[in-house]
Amino acid sequence: MQKFMKWIMPIVFLGMCIAIAAVMMATKPIPQTRTPPATVTTVKAARLKKTDFQVVIPSQGIVQARTRSRLIPQVSGEITWISDSFRSGGFFEQDEPLIKIDARDYETARVIARATLAQRTSAYELEKAQHAQAKANWKRLGDGQDASPLTLREPQLAEARALMESALAGLTRAERDLERTTIKAPYAGRILNRSVDVGQSVAPGTSLAEIFATDYVEIRLPLRNEHLDFVTLPEVFTGMQPTPELNHPEVRLTGQYGTRKVTWNGHVVRTQGAYDPRSRELFVIAQVDNPYGKTDGDAPPLKINQFVKADIEGHLLRNVFIIPRSALRQGNTTIIIDNENRIQRRTVKVLWKQGEQVMIREGLSEGELICLTPLLFAADGAKVNPLLQGEPTPSEDQSRLNEPDEKPLVKGRIP
């Protein structure tokens, strides 16, 4: 009997536990469940409006002088004087004396040339009188026959005239050489660097200094081929002279001067006749007038070989949509939010990109909402909550979404 109870009691106890557990499972309360609201993504939006936009084409280049040349003497001799302007960085005006070469030998040559001319002139006048006398004698004694040139002393007269003209040319050359002992500036400019000083002997071909003109400077600016549709360049055809009626786009140059940025204003004056063979870009020439003159501002003068960035004024785009670059998706698509706050992907035609702005003329309509928030996996028709200038945009569906649910609680089991 004890052995029987030993096996029966555990079984009975286990059965009672199972029964109690079954009763508890059968009588447990049913939990209340709430239907979760639909997930709506909040995005930033902007309302599209047509406006005008001024195209500015970026470029860059190196400042170059309009004219850059070497100052070379045409006569030889010792330098006896130099101007105070004849130093690196010095300014000079057109025809201003810069250097004087020892002129004593050339003054002597001019005296000799004048004496030679006087002798040859006297000989010519004498021969001319003899020629006239020979003609008169032959007229009186020639019996109406033609006289030979030698009888009339015509060869002697021609020789005397040639010698006189040669002496005159010699005097002209002597005076010109004497004048060249004073080297004058060929144009208003500035000394880039000088190579000689007082007491140095020079000869034709010796480089005295490197100079450049200061009336204006030029900058070669490259333009990509796609930029040419947005700017009117001063093109000149064969047989056509540049006229004021040609368009000369304004150019704003920016350069670094120490730790500050400085700007200068110029304009495009011409284009080059060929594309660059390496970059396949067209270069235009911008000109800055009077780059070394004092201006109302504190801008320093432009420097030769200075690197500058340029903004070229292009066309004025009228009635275009301006959107942030971040609102343009891959494949030139945008996300438009309709009246029900649902998104639609739309392909647009990009007209121009500048900085963080994109100009669009086709594919959008005025008054539409464009999504500014990046949505990587948003499908067409997905609902969003647009924020326009920080405020939610109302719509019929949004109003219904904000209404309280009459039956927020439903009974059922959690799946």
Structure description:
With 415 residues, the chain is α+β, with helices and mostly antiparallel strands. The protein folds into four domains: 43-48 and 328-401, Beta Barrel (conserved putative lor/sdh protein from methanococcus maripaludis s2 fold); 69-102 and 181-214, Beta Barrel (OB fold (Dihydrolipoamide Acetyltransferase, E2P)); 103-180; 216-316, Elongation Factor Tu (Ef-tu), domain 3. The chain has four helices and 24 strands. It has helices spanning 2-26, 104-141, 154-180, 396-402; strands at 32-34, 41-47, 50-65, 68-71, 77-82, 91-92, 97-101, 182-184, 189-194, 201-202, 209-213, 216-223, 250-257, 260-275, 282-289, 307-324, 333-337, 343-347, 349-354, 357-362, 369-371, 384-388, 391-392, 409-411. The strands form five sheets. It has a six-stranded mixed sheet with strand order 18-17-21-2-22-23, with no helix packed on it. Strands 3-12-15-14-13-16 form a six-stranded antiparallel β-barrel. Strands 4-11-9-6 form a four-stranded antiparallel sheet, with no helix packed on it. Helix 2 (104-141) packs antiparallel against helix 3. The longest helix has 38 residues, at 104-141. Mean pLDDT is 85; it is low at 396-415.
Q: Which labels suit this protein?
A:
single chain; 415 residues; alpha+beta; conserved putative lor/sdh protein from methanococcus maripaludis s2 fold
